[in-house]
Amino acid sequence: MTHINLKTAIPGPNSVALQERRAAAVSRGLGQANAVAVQLARGSLVTDVDGNTFIDLAGGIGMMAVGHNHPRVVAAVQAQVAEAIHPCALVTNFEGYPALAERLNALTPGDFPKKTLLANGGAEAVENAVKIARAHTGRAGVIVFEGAYHGRTNLTMAMTSKYGLFKKGFGPFAPEVYRLPFPNPYRAPDGMSSEQWIDWCCWNLENALVAHIDGSALACIVIEPVMGEGGFIPTPARFMHKIREICDRTGAVMIADEIQSGSGRTGRLYAIEHAGVVPDLLVSAKSLGAGTPISAVTGRAEIMDAPHLGGVGSTYGGSPVSCAAALAVLDILTEPGFLEQAAMIERVIRDVWEPLRGELPIGDIRGVGAMMAVEFVKDPQTKEPWMDLVAAAVPLAVGRGVLLIRAGLYSNCLRFLPALDIPEDILREGLNAVVDALREAYAKARPVVPAQEQPVQPVPA
Predict the structure, then answer these.
(1) Is the separation of the CB atoms in 228 and 62 below 8 Å?
(2) How many domains does the chain have?
(3) Is 13 exposed, middle or buried (0-12, 13-18, 19+ CB in 10 A)?
(4) How far apart are CA 118 and CA 283, in angstroms?
(5) Which of 186-190, 354-358, 455-459 shows the lowest per-residue confidence on average (mean pLDDT)?
(6) Which of 307, 354, 420, 439 has the largest count of CB atoms under 10 Å?
């Protein structure tokens, strides 16, 4: 049984018409990875306005750990909308806000009193986490890492890598942000093993407290347990422990940015659990709301209480509707066996792509659970990123019925963010369509090597 059902060319005529309206009415700065206009979404399948059905391996950039329009999420939202849409947490109290805070306080790592602040999206939550850390420490300095993505506000743009895509033309940026190398094992410098590179990055983190900022001026270190936009690179556990050690020694706040890697994505409720490290503050969003706008900062109560009364908040942060969705999501994620499905997703993705090393220009296959990426390079020795190949493959995959997005500092990775409960046959069908798209893109991109010229034979006398 196939689940992809394409009735028109892609994009179809109705999608094209809607795309023309978007181009005329919407800022051209808003990107769009797939030329598809969605009409209906259920689970791991999306149907467009032309009646074409696609397998969704992008999941709204990781928003859909429980799948599109999960019936329990829909029911919770509908029930809440019928009662009160948004009286505003800055004006009144309502059941959803403390109820969600209580759940997050109980579920996030750490056996200590916790509190939570809710917001609308990831960038807003990261910015709040930094503000809270600064209020707690009385310091300004923030350490982040190359390849990181933390958002699009002015402060979080300063914290984010990938200048050309996210930052060009938008400066000046917030000060007191210090960016250090990240120990990506695949891209260890020439002459260094992966372990030596991790060792050096740990040393450099210590050295930065002399070369860049004194520990007494450091408010926080912000780390993604699995780097998201940077290419789905799991942070080495040793590096994570070094961050914890430095924060303990200096009194800085360790902030785990789990916007993309959290809420069950890696097979644990939070990806940092794989390393056995407990952060002081943890930021969650994306899959927490299953498509509704919500984010959270959760952490040590004494740190969360540092801002003065009225110092944090937002008009829409923690709306009753989004809280209802998030509570339903957490119920689903914590059901026995649900998170374990992420292991099947990782296994299948590796089963499909590993045998293609050599046939396709695969540099690396990495990730954890349902957060996986395949990186493509022009040369396996130099590891030169092949951005154009991946850019060409994405629309070809869409044309075969799969929604897909890129990732990586060099935009040379395909990222896979399926719903955790995607059936294996649907996952394999989608992945095989992506493989066919890569084969086609690679066949078109490979340089034609001319046949070796035959030596000229001397004419006999």
Answers:
(1) yes
(2) 2
(3) exposed
(4) 10
(5) 455-459
(6) 420
